[in-house]
Design goal:
This is Farnesoic acid O-methyl transferase domain-containing protein. It comes from Cuerna arida. InterPro entries: DM9_repeat, Methyltransf_FA. The protein has one helix and 19 strands. By secondary structure, it is an all-beta fold. It folds into two domains: 136 residues, Sandwich (Jelly Rolls); 75 residues, no CATH class. Strands 13, 14, 15, 16, 17, 18 and 19 form a seven-stranded antiparallel β-sheet that branches. The radius of gyration is 20 Å and the shape is elongated.
Length: 245
């Protein structure tokens, strides 16, 4: 069940354990929806924390702040991003110090920053202030894009023999023996997905819950995809379009 709560115009955080490394929520507020990430509930003033401000500065900007001090680590113009008339959805992903903030309907974040001294985030808090109160609906499920916390049924996963197979998956779940394709703030896995009538190879980014495929000069996030698996695979150098045997 989602967490439903209200915050007053006090800037006082209400804390809960983080459900996964991606926090998904909806908020109704005129401005200044604040989210704090911390290692403890009710952190003291000297404890390391991260704050995300959505719709600050009279609903004109959003920012990431470390340890309650300015200057902010990142900020971006986001005019009218919040509404006092409707719930609007957002997500915050925190993995290995890389923090990304995005809108519910978009896979690309609008605000990012990488913390050089990552916090072991275990709690989140929400608050409102500067003339705004808030209504929050927070997704407390821990399985949508956090495979490390969930056991999933994968009947087609190959055995330890190393047999190569494409395994259906979705929502960022990575099956056992997935083939590692690279690293960009987190592991990238070899995937493929249906797009425009074809099956296109791509990269599975677990924290975003999708497999990205390239088409028409842009990346397209696919929630349903297949992951390449096999324990005895290796990358082979090649040049000029040659395909190794």
């Amino acid at each position: 069940m989602p967490i439903e709560l209200k915050t007053q115009d006090t800037l006082e955080y209400v804390f809960h354990p983080v459900p996964s490394r991606t926090l998904r929520f909806k908020v109704r507020a005129s401005n200044d929806a604040h989210i704090m990430l911390s290692a403890t509930a009710n952190p003291e003033g000297s404890d390391p924390v991260l704050e995300v401000f959505i719709g600050g500065w009279s609903n004109q900007k959003s920012a990431i702040r470390r340890d309650r001090v300015t200057p902010d680590k990142a900020n971006v113009e986001t005019p009218d991003i919040l509404s006092n008339d409707e719930l609007r959805g957002f997500w915050i992903n925190y993995l290995g110090g890389a923090i990304a903030v995005g809108k519910e309907s978009e896979v690309e974040p609008f605000l990012t920053w990488t913390d050089p001294a990552p916090i072991n985030v275990a709690f989140f808090g929400v608050s409102t202030g500067y003339g705004s109160s808030g209504e929050w609906v927070i997704d407390d499920e821990n399985y949508d894009i956090d495979p490390l916390r969930n056991i999933v049924d994968t009947p087609d996963v190959p055995s330890a023999s190393g047999e190569v197979a494409w395994v259906p998956s979705q929502g960022g779940v990575i099956p056992p023996n997935a083939v590692l394709g690279g690293f960009d703030n987190e592991n990238l896995y070899v995937g493929r997905a249906q797009h425009e009538g074809g099956v296109i190879p791509g990269k599975v980014l677990s924290s975003h819950g999708v497999c990205y495929v390239a088409w028409g000069g842009a990346e397209h996030g696919k929630q349903d995809y297949e992951v390449l698996t096999g324990s005895n695979l290796q990358w082979v150098p090649s040049v000029e379009g040659q395909v190794p045997p």
